[in-house]
Amino acid sequence: MKDRTFQPLERPVVGEMNVPGDKSISHRAVMFGSMAKGKTVIDNFLDGEDCLHTIDIFRQMGVRIKQSGLHVVIESDGVEAFQEPTAPLYFGNSGTTARLMLGILPALPFFTVMHGDPHLTIRPMERVVTPLKLMGAQMDGRKEGNYLPIAIKGGVLTGIHYELPVKSAQVKSAVLLAGLFAEGETTVIEQTKTRDHTENMLRAFGADIVSNENTITVTNKRKLRATDVTVPGDISSAAFFIVAAAIVPNSYLTLKNVGLNETRTGIIDILLEMGANITIENKREISGEMLGDITVRYTKLKGVIVEGDIIPRLIDEIPIIALLATQATGSTVIKNAEELRVKETDRIHAVVTILTTLGAKLEETADGMIVHGDTKLQGGSIASYSDHRIAMMGVIASLISEGSVTIDDVSSIAISYPAFFDDLAKVTKER
Ligand SMILES: O=C(O)C1=C[C@@H](OP(=O)(O)O)[C@@H](O)[C@H](O)C1
Ligand SMILES: C=C(OP(=O)(O)O)C(=O)O
C-alpha cells in the first residue's frame, strides 16, 4: 500500500475545468462501435482503467481498436465476425463491463470465460444471469452463477417481457442487449427510471428500440450501424469538484461540458434543495445526450432527505453527498440506497466509517445513513477500500479538515478519473 497524506486547503477552489468523459457512455460507445460493421470514432473517451478493459475485451474477439488518449477508432466487421477468445476475458474492477457483456456473450456462437479482480468477483451477477437464463442463455458460474468467474456457451436466445426487480441500469442494459440478438421482442419494465444511455445510444446506432416511460422494447430486426460518438463530461466525476466548491469557503468554480442527462442529474437537484448557488449555461445536445457548463459558488447549505426515485439518479454520488452533508446545517437522511452495499465495496459502511474517523457524526442504517451537519472534520488516517469513489471522497474531505488526511491507497482513482490529481491541483493552486 502507498500511503498518501493530504493537507487542508487554505484557500478557495477557483477556476474553470473540464472533467473526463462519461464512464457509462464510454463503455457503451466501445461496445456498440465494436458490434456495428464499419468505422466508429469516439472522442473525449474516458481513458480510465474500467473503459480500457472494455476495449481489451473486444480486441480479444478480433475487433481492431486504436486508442490514443481520449481518441478511439474502432474498425469492425460486425458482431457476426467476432472470434472466439483463446483466453478468459478479464473485466478488472468494472461492474458495468461485466454486466453488459453478460447480455452480449450468450448470443455469440462460441465459448467465453469471464473473470475479474477480487472486488468484482464478489459482486452479484445473479440479477443479470436470471433474466438471461429465461431468454435461453447457457451460462454458469460460482455459487449457481451468481459470481464470477462465469463461463458462457453461445446459443439461441428468445425475447422476454421482464420487470426489473432491482433498480439497475446495468441489468436493464444487459437484457436489452440480449434482446438485440433474440427471436421476437424483448421488453424491460423499470420500477424507477435508471440511466438511459443504452437506449439513447442504441437509437443513434440504428437499433429497433422504443421507449415509453419506464417500458423499453427492442427487436433484432436491424443491425447496428457504425456511428461516431462524442462523450460528454462525467457528472459523477464532476460531483467531486462541485462538492469541493460547495464546501470550501469563497469557492467559485465552472465545470465545462458536463453531461446533464436527466437520469444522472440527481446531485444538482439535491444541491439546489440544500440551497446551493449553482447555475447551468450553454445547455446543448451532442450524440443524443445533453451537456452544459455548471458553475458553483460557495454558500451555506441546509440538510435534506434523499430518498425514493432520485436514488438511481445520484447513486454513485452518494459518498460525496455524505461529505457535503457533514457541512450543512441540520441533518441529512439518505434512504433507499441499499444498492450501495453491492458496489466496488459496501459504500454505506465505508462512508460512515471514514467520515466518523475524520470527526463527523453519522449513523449507518440498513439502506443508507443519517448525517448530522455542521461538524468540523479533524483529519486522520483512513482506508480507501480500493474504491475509486471512496478514495476521491477522502481527498476532497482533506480540503476542509483541520489536520491532514492520510489515505492508505489512492491508486483506484485511475479506474474512473486518471487526471483527478492534476485537475485538483489546477483549481486549488495559489493565485
Ligand atoms: O449502467 C451503468 O453504466 C452504471 C449503472 C449503475 O450501476 P447499477 O446498474 O448497478 O445501479 C452505476 O452505479 C454504475 O457506476 C454505472
Ligand atoms: C459502481 C461503479 O461502477 P461499476 O458498477 O461499473 O463498477 C462506479 O463507477 O461507481
Automatic annotation (TrEMBL):
Binding sites annotated in the UniProt record for phosphoenolpyruvate: K23, G95, R123, Q170, R347, R389
Enzyme Commission numbers on file: 2.5.1.19
Single GO BP term: chorismate biosynthetic process
Binding partners and assembly: Monomer.
UniProt-listed PROSITE patterns: EPSP_SYNTHASE_1, EPSP_SYNTHASE_2
Catalytic activity: 3-phosphoshikimate + phosphoenolpyruvate = 5-O-(1-carboxyvinyl)-3-phosphoshikimate + phosphate
Keyword Oxidoreductase assigned: no
Active site positions, chain numbering: D316 (proton acceptor)
Assigned protein family: Belongs to the EPSP synthase family.
Keyword terms, alphabetized: Amino-acid biosynthesis, Aromatic amino acid biosynthesis, Cytoplasm, Transferase
Gene Ontology MF term list: 3-phosphoshikimate 1-carboxyvinyltransferase activity
Pfam families membership: EPSP_synthase (PF00275)
Cell compartments where the protein resides: Cytoplasm
Positions with a binding annotation for 3-phosphoshikimate: K23, S24, R28, S168, Q170, D316, K343
Pathway(s): Metabolic intermediate biosynthesis; chorismate biosynthesis; chorismate from D-erythrose 4-phosphate and phosphoenolpyruvate: step 6/7
Chain's gene name: aroA
Source organism (scientific name): Pseudogracilibacillus auburnensis
Residue span, Enolpyruvate transferase domain: 12-424
Main location, first listed in the record: cytoplasm
The protein, known as: 3-phosphoshikimate 1-carboxyvinyltransferase
Role, per record: Catalyzes the transfer of the enolpyruvyl moiety of phosphoenolpyruvate (PEP) to the 5-hydroxyl of shikimate-3-phosphate (S3P) to produce enolpyruvyl shikimate-3-phosphate and inorganic phosphate.
HAMAP family (UniProt xref): EPSP_synth
GO cellular component assignments: cytoplasm
InterPro entries: Enolpyruvate_Tfrase_dom (IPR001986), Enolpyruvate_Tfrase_sf (IPR036968), EPSP_synthase (IPR006264), EPSP_synthase_CS (IPR023193), RNA3'P_cycl/enolpyr_Trfase_a/b (IPR013792)
